[in-house]
Amino acid sequence: MRDHAPGARAAVALAAAIGMLAAGCSSGSSTTSSSTPASTQPATSSPSGTTVSTSQCGTKAGVPATGTPITVGGIVTDQPGTSFTDIAFMAKAYFACVNANGGVNGHPINYIIEKEQTNPAQIAAEAKQLVQSDHVVAIVGNTSILECTIDHSYWEKLGFDIIDSGIAPECYSTSNSAAVNMGPRYSSDGAVQYALSQHVSKVVFDQSNVPGTGYIAAGPAALAAAAHTPIVQLTENVPISDANSVAIKEVDDAGPNGAVVLNFTPPQALVILQAAQKLGLENRVKLWGCSTPCNTDFLAQSLGPKWNNKLFVNAELAPPDSTSSASMSLYRAILSQYGSAVSGGVGSFSQMGFTEAEILVHALESVTGTYSVQSVNAAIRAVSGFNTGQLCQLWSYGSYPMHIPNNEDWTVTPSNGKMTTAQGCTQISSVDPQIAAYRKVAGVAATAP
Amino acid sequence: MLDVAEPAASAPQRWRLRRPGARALARAGVVAALFLFVLLALPQLLSLYYVDAMTQVAVYSMVALGLGVLVGRVGLISLGQVAVLAVGAWTAARLLFATSMPYPVVLLAAGLITMVAGTLIGLPALRLRGLYLALITLMLAGAITVVLKTVNFPNGGHGFTGYNGSSVHIPPIRRPSIAGSDPAYFRYAVVVAALMFLLAAAHIRTRPGRAWAAIRQSEPAALAAGINTTLYKLWAFALASFVTGVAGGVLAGAVHYLYSIDFPTQDSITLLAVVLMGGAYSLWGAIIAALLLQLLPALLNNWGVSADWLTILFGIGVLQVLTTAPAGLADQAPRDLARLGRLLLALARRLAPSAGGAK
Amino acid sequence: MPSWQDFQPFIVSGLALGGVYALSGVGMVVLYQATGVVYLAFGAVGAMGALIAWSLTHAGTPGWVGWLACVAFSAVVTLGYGMVFGPALAKRDPLVKAVATLGLTLVLFGVMDLLWTTSGGRSRGITLPTDNPAFMIGQIQVTWTQVIGLAVGVAITAGTGAFLRYTKLGTAMRAMANDREITATLGVPVRRVEAAAWLGCGVLAGVAGLLLADLVALDATTLTFLVISSLAATLIARLRSITLTFGAALLIGLVHDLLTPIQSLSSYNDMTPFVLAAVALLVISRRRVMSAASREEA
Question: DSSP states of B40-57 as a string?
């Protein structure tokens, strides 16, 4: 005979109700990717004081687009601990702006965002869903640890030219993917390159143990070898539960005249740096470096003044606080008016989304006739020498077997709660064999200023 | 021991081989029809997105089957089945990259190697009972997960691990030549799963199944009756590991790319939750568990609902099953449906006299 | 092989890590001693409390309000769970009771990720006023929070051990964990004693949650599944001795960090809790069968 507890059944139901109620009352949850609401005021002021109207994103100010929608899609990682939805949501915000200001020749853009949890079967299935069920004509905004690896053959077979914010090696080494960012390897190259330029005697490169560590490590290894500087390669399982030992190990290996360069997502990098500070180790090495994910004001604020001119972060995109261009003002305006779902605010993630959307709209505007997979992707491939306003260089797609169109970077450092420029546009060295290979195939387009 | 309730009907028949009666034949007919439908018609009806999801259902139905045998039949809880799946997938991937053995041979090899590993782990662990056994399987799974994070899955490289960390172009894991496309591979997976279910059913209907039932009722009594409990418990571990290893092989071909981040320790907890919810006692429970684990998230993702709701549902499901319905959905659902059917009949009867009276 | 100098800083960080494991390990053994339930939701409930504290502090309330809310939340949820599911599962195997707490863990984990969504660019953090440096050991700075973490672990170990052995309520708790029915017939107010045990554990979970959120990270996944590593310490102590759990936790932390400077083993150091627990269990069970069924080992 079982011990029946009739109260238990009711309690379970009650627990369920409480759980649902509690979750229902959540504020600012980004579980849905519905369109962001537009506020009533169309203009917003940038930090430099000039007023910028978001209507500049489109061709007909204030005229909503009402034609047949152009459907495009994107796949981003979104799981507990790792979320790149900010990039997709910012792209969606850009499209919302364009749709409110004339669309693309009167056609609104319908952006479908698929979220994945680093599950290869799911990622492959979502690609097929976008193509076969949603009938997208372009793929833009992909930001995923695995997607490029899993889907690149599929995109090549169907003739899609992806505009993404790459992470996996295949985002930079295949013919149908061109990224607006540099990705972990080339961004780490930039950080290590800066450290080497400061004449450190040793480099410790520590990265998160997610797929592709060997590929990522090869870049810094080549740079250090060319500079005749010893390099120690480390990896950490994430999420990090013992930041203290990580910080001690890095500092010990680097030595007083060495550099510790990190390649982690912002929360993990923050945990390591804060542990180093709590242990009193931040001055035990000559300098600290970090790849682009660290480039957020949030990190600058969380770290505090001890890291001013101590931590040097590679910036793949223009530092928002030290750049006052029309593009940057437009980015801020769109973010504040349409980007309520972008939880990270001003920072490289949302900048990437902005840039990718910008490039797609530029390509779409050059399409005459119907918007089909063939016509749209031909237009994307034809993008050449486009000034995104967010990168060091002009951006090109082109018909190359590999793409690393963003290969010049800034270096920033925290200063009183903001990231400020420490070094202007610098090319990633061709000592990295992949960079050399790209510059060879792309020719002039690779390094167009 | 986990005392999962068993339907009373099978109790007296435990020691006799049942001759198939009319009811059993009808049931077999229904199962066969369902199987043929799933095999032939389903891939034509579903979009590729759902075909891929259903392939995962086929894979995880085997994993749930293995865990169901352990939990439902023998009363042993293993919190490390996802690690076993990872070992099976690793072995299959290594063989597929390194050799050109035909696919069924690879699956068999993966199953056998995983079976040996699982049995070796089970051997010392059998001195532990109940809670300790569950917790030690969790510990061993944690250890395997850490090793996998460092060793990584094969990706076409050389050496024992077959992992090339610097690859810029990772080759996909191959599929059988007859089942390259997604719908074809789905059918392949369904056939393999059916074979595994038949294997498990064969075990359950014959001596091992009876020994397991005796052990689950009372281990000392089984010992007294002369049953070699250690052997049969190991056999259960071996069967569960073999089936899960084969599932790993099918998974490798399904996804083409394997990563250690896809086999976290906490997935073993979710797996246990769905197996309990689906019904650890019945073979149908394994299929329900797999549907919960793989189809439901795919549906929710399509509808824009966060996967967190599923986690909450599974948590509530575990609590519900353990407190009020230990036999899970597989047992509960037919009973609830029968009750619903009776209610509808009673309602119809109540309405009928008034209709008859109106004439 | 690294020198003694190289190992020294890792001894300090290892003890700090051990203190972290000890907090949740000891908390779980305490409840097991009193109710026979391995409270696997210990980490999840503390994590959610810490997130609530973060939200309150983020909204502008003074720090202590958040901490109080954290402890209160953990206490209420744990007490609620214990009062509802304790009696319902009282006659079942300890394994069933432990798996049930896994159900609670999943519910809390799902709710946490829904309410406090992961953001790509930002993270949450708890800072306590005790984060200031206390003193230096060698070249390593130790913060007051780390000292408090260790001290709380010691206090719980010593205090609860004494409480369970020498006070009337404590004896009643131990009797109940052994056999609820007989204890009830002896006239002990079983439901009240049970409530006290669950409440105490809930308070502990809240305090541990705050400290761990500060010492480790305010991340739902990390904090929830930290219990798996802490379980290793409890298993080495066979879920019986609180002092042994504390010692085992410190040992695990030390070994984990001391492996760091050894190049060949460094990437495997996360295996430490699992390997130590598995080895300990297998060694202990060499001679006899180990079972957690109420009459035998508990």
Answer: IIHHHHS-HHHHHHHHHH
CB contact under 8 A, B136 and C277: yes
**Residue B163's CB: how many other CB atoms inside 10 A?**
19
Contact call for C121 and A245, based on CB within 8 A:
no
The verdict on A15 touching B (C-beta cutoff 8 Å) is yes
Give whole-number Cα distances, A232 to A220, A260, A262, A339, A434, in Å: 10, 9, 12, 41, 21
User: pLDDT digits over B302-339, tens only?
Assistant: 888 888 999 999 999 999 989 886 666 666 666 777 77
Nearest in space to C70 (alpha carbons), one of C59, C89, C57: C57
Phi, psi for C207 (deg, rounded to 5): -60, -45
Chain B partners of A125 at a C-beta cutoff of 8 Å? 48-50, 52-53, 298
Name B25's Cβ contacts closer than 8 Å, sequence gap at least 6: none
Peptide bond into A239 cis (omega under 30): yes
Whether residue C118 contacts residue A82, with contact meaning beta carbons closer than 8 Å, is answered with: yes
Alpha helical stretches, state H, B159-227: 182-205, 207-217, 219-224
Supply φ then ψ for residue B332, to 5 degrees: -70, -45
**Hey, are the CB atoms on B139 and C231 less than 8 Å from each other?**
yes
Kindly state whether A239 is in contact with chain B, defined as any CB-CB distance less than 8 angstroms: no
- Chain B: closest CA distance from residue A441 (Å): 17
Inter-residue contact C210 to A225 (CB < 8 Å): no
- Residue C293 sits at the chain B interface (C-beta within 8 Å): yes
Cα separation, A227 vs A199, whole angstroms? 9
Q: What amino acid occupies position A397?
A: Y
Q: Are A269 and C130 in contact (CB under 8 A)?
A: no
| Among the partner residues B169, B307, B316, nearest to A15 by beta-carbon distance | B316
C193 touches chain B (CB under 8 A): no
In tens digits, chain A (449 residues) has pLDDT values of: 333 444 444 444 444 444 444 333 333 333 333 333 333 333 444 444 455 788 888 888 888 989 999 999 999 999 887 889 999 999 999 999 999 999 999 999 999 999 999 999 999 999 999 999 999 999 999 999 999 999 999 999 999 999 999 999 999 999 999 999 999 999 999 999 999 999 999 999 999 988 889 999 999 999 999 999 999 999 998 888 889 999 999 999 999 999 999 999 888 999 999 999 988 899 999 999 999 988 888 888 888 899 999 999 999 999 888 888 899 999 999 999 999 999 878 888 899 999 999 999 999 999 999 999 999 999 999 999 999 999 999 999 999 999 999 999 999 999 988 888 999 999 999 999 999 999 999 987 777 66
- The ipTM assigned to this model is 0.89
* C120 closest CA partner among A26, A291, A79: A79
| Residue of A224, A223, A230, A280 lying closest to A253 (CA atoms) | A230
- Tens-digit pLDDT profile for residues B156-170: 888 888 888 888 888
The whole-angstrom separation of Cα C287 and Cα C214 is 42
pTM more than 0.80: yes
Nearest to B244 by CA among B219, B277, B267: B267
